Amino acid sequence: MDTVIAKNINEETMDKAGEIIRKGGLVAFPTETVYGLGANAFSEDAVKKIYKAKGRPSDNPLIVHLSDVSEVETVAREIPGCARKLLKNYAPGPFTLILKKQDKIGDTVTAGLDTVGVRIPSHPVARKFIKAAGVPVAAPSANLSGKPSPTNEKHVIEDMKGRIDMIICGGSSEVGVESTIIDCTTKIPTILRPGGITPEDVASVCGSVEIDGHILKSLEKDEQPKCPGMKYKHYAPDADVAVVEGEKEATEKEIVRLSKEAKEKGYKVGVLAMENRGFCADTFICSGTDGKSMAMRLFDALRQFDEKGTDIVFAQMCLDEKSGLAVRNRLYKSAGGKIIYVSK
Ligand code: TXA
Ligand code: MG
What we know:
The chain is 33% helix and 19% strand. It has eleven helices and 16 strands. It has helices at 11-22, 44-54, 72-75, 81-90, 107-110, 124-133, 153-160, 199-206, 248-264, 291-307, 321-334, and strands spanning 4-6, 27-29, 36-40, 63-65, 95-100, 115-119, 137-139, 166-168, 180-183, 190-193, 210-211, 240-246, 269-273, 283-286, 312-317, 339-342. Strands 1-8-2-3-7-4-6-5-9-10-11 form an eleven-stranded mixed sheet, sandwiched between helices. The relative contact order is 0.14. The mean pLDDT is 94. Bound molecules: threonylcarbamoyladenylate (TXA) and magnesium ion (MG). Threonylcarbamoyladenylate is lined by residues 31, 33-34, 36, 60-63, 96, 98, 110, 113, 115-117, 119, 139-141, 178-179, 181, 192, 227-229.
């Protein structure tokens, strides 16, 4: 399939993208979190194409994207008080609400669940695109299943060129990790996936918040997660990733030791850390020093390590629980649970 790569964002581009969606095609588009791969959420046939293009398991539901808060009722049949407060305070923005679905939203979107993920992105191009489509847009991240989510157009082109109808280019994503997923069907709102809207943000408007226990922990064998996406090894680069966690200087020392050892064994070594402290790395990438900058750079860094043919990546993690929640969750997943804790 020929993929139109739209670099100039003008009215004509948006009209064309909207038309593709209405005709049942697939369009990748930028959002403030990561790029999405969109289809008409009301067309089961169109939505099926998303799973095919990504190689995504069919039991992993999609998020429905809207251009405005006023449209939430078209896809959700119940909007509890906490959901209304979150929408009023933070929409449009980097979060997704889990709500009871309307019948019009089919089983292919929700993977058979009675709930639907609803998100109103703040990125102006995303909103214009959804408006031009004139229908709610079902969209997962625009990566091949199992790859890190795309945070710039180059990533999307790498994964999706030839598989979809159009890619709308919009530069780098500002947040860099996927939206916070907040389940509003529970008595107390529950965070199923951490992101740009923090637990503190949720608690400050809803009064309280719960954090799903699986955010920093792997699933037990045969355990069913609330957020089906949790059970898949996500965000995985080809290289093995080991998270080295602890206080800054202690983790640096340990990465010096581990990188030297791996190099001596003949591995191609990558290091993702705050500063280059004499590591034995073929590729060093600066991680940034706070939660926000680390989130923005993480997925691009994982892809760069793969481009360089890296065998093993040592990733430093010394953020506290609060500021590090979203990055820690993504790093733990990309490491498939390989975490090395170091004490002083
Ligand atoms: O920031 C984002 O959320 C991006 C952009 C494109 O908006 N989208 C995204 O979609 O990350 P995806 O498909 O890569 O991740 C969606 C996650 C999956 O883990 C899925 O299991 C969960 O949302 N999800 C979707 N609908 C759900 C539902 N009804 N109940 C629980 N989890 C749901
Ligand atoms: Mg994804």
